[in-house]
Specification:
This protein is of the alpha+beta class and about 375 residues long. It folds into two domains: about 10-90 and about 290-310, no CATH class; about 100-275. It is about 40% helix and about 20% strand. It has helices at about 15-30, 35-45, 90-115, 140-160, 195-205, 225-235, 260-265, 305-310, 315-325, 345-374, and strands at about 50-55, 65-70, 80-85, 120-135, 170-175, 185-190, 215-220, 240-245, 250-255, 270-275, 300. The strands form three sheets. The chain has a five-stranded antiparallel beta sheet, covered by helices on one side. A hairpin with a 7-residue loop joins strand 2 and strand 3. Helix 4 crosses helix 5.
């Protein structure tokens, strides 16, 4: 499509060619693995889910647009266009957005705990490793069992000093497959009493039946990083989808044939789980969606109404009120000034025509309903 001044930036394709090629390979791998529904969602994910367009006559929305927000204060300010996304946790872009939502949910609570200055309670980041690779035939079963083993390990060590730890301590668990060998491991953010690494390693070995024992413990947040930055690092993805070499610029992605395995592991399961103080932290109140230019509230409008908004500046409810209250509309008389000398049609003829029109519209509606069901 040729670029013009009115063409929205969403039509440009910011994904590098190698990433586009990789996504095509993943689509084929998902389809070949019998995951057709997931494959279609993956393929429908727009590369740029959000863009801005100045509402002006002649501007049109891209076909992928699903939601439109416009400035209530001044319709000439930029509108925000949200396009289709797959919301799959195996999608790099959607996974990052999901991680951002999780950070937004837990950040305020974490900050409050960090500023309480408890005498003995601190935050720490714990990593429980395992020898299970993503290619393991029983990896989904081991993945789900691993959450129970992490809980058993943490609860056993914490209960030794504080049997009622759930009322004063807590931890968050997120599963991930590592970059080297794609081995399963669990990231834990713990708030509470001091936990000895050797005790955690011993309990982890017991919980896994001796199959795993390596445990890493480090401070939280990381040195030189805020709580938000560290939380983003821990929750950002379930696997490192791709990385770019700083020198050559070459992009290395996870092999496409492994993505169906990852999709099956994550299907209908929670990747992040919480216990104790962190359990069922409520979603934060939605923040007002404000215009970046004037600070006025952004209003969501139907996609089909965007052209009307560009041409008139009216929001749907404002247009309705103008028609119902402010405008005096009357039927127009488009007849010639001179008589055509023809008699007006008989009322029976009019009734017959209306009946024929009604039957035609009913038949068309049945056809439309039939094709929708198909």
């Amino acid at each position: 499509m040729p670029q013009t001044e009115d063409t929205p930036s969403l039509y440009t394709y910011p994904r590098p060619a190698s990433i586009r090629s990789w996504r095509n390979d993943v689509y084929e791998a998902l389809s070949d693995a019998g995951l057709s529904k997931i494959a279609e969602r993956w393929n429908s994910c727009c590369d740029t889910p959000k863009t801005k367009i100045k509402p002006a006559p002649g501007v049109t929305l891209p076909r992928t647009a699903e939601t439109v927000y416009v400035c209530k204060g001044d319709h000439r300010h930029e509108a925000e266009i949200y396009s289709q996304s797959c919301d799959l946790r195996i999608c790099p872009e959607c996974a990052r957005r999901q991680a951002a939502r999780l950070v937004h949910r837990y950040l305020d609570f974490f900050n409050d705990l960090a500023h309480q200055h408890h005498k003995t309670y601190r935050f720490r980041h714990i990593v429980f490793t395992s020898p299970y690779a993503l290619t393991d035939p029983d990896i989904r079963k081991k993945y789900l069992c691993g959450f129970k083993q992490v809980y058993k390990t943490m609860s056993a060590v914490m209960s030794e000093k504080c049997p009622g730890w759930k009322t004063s301590q807590g931890f968050l668990v997120g599963a991930e497959f590592g970059e080297t060998g794609h081995k399963l491991h669990y990231h834990v953010i713990h708030y509470g009493q001091y936990l000895n690494q050797s005790d955690l390693s011993r309990a982890w070995k017991e919980a896994t039946g001796g199959e795993a024992y390596v445990v890493f413990v480090r401070g939280f947040p990381y040195p030189g990083h805020s709580i938000e930055e560290t939380l983003r690092e821990v929750l950002k993805y379930c696997v490192k989808f791709y990385s770019q070499d700083e020198t050559s610029g070459q992009i290395e992605a996870i092999p496409a044939h492994l993505m169906p395995c990852l999709a099956r592991v994550l299907e209908k399961s929670r990747r992040v789980r919480t216990y104790g103080l962190f359990f069922k932290i409520p979603e934060p109140d939605g923040r007002d969606h404000l215009c970046a230019t004037c600070g006025s509230k952004m209003i969501g409008i139907p996609v089909d109404y965007f052209v009307t908004f560009c041409n008139t500046g009216f929001l749907p409810l404002e247009w309705k009120s103008q028609i119902s209250g402010g405008l005096d509309l009357r039927p127009a008389d488009k007849s010639f000034s001179l008589s055509s000398s023809l008699d007006p049609p008989d009322t029976k003829i009019i009734a017959a025509r209306q009946l024929e029109l009604s039957k035609a519209m009913s038949a068309r509606k049945k056809d439309d309903d039939y094709y929708k069901k198909r």
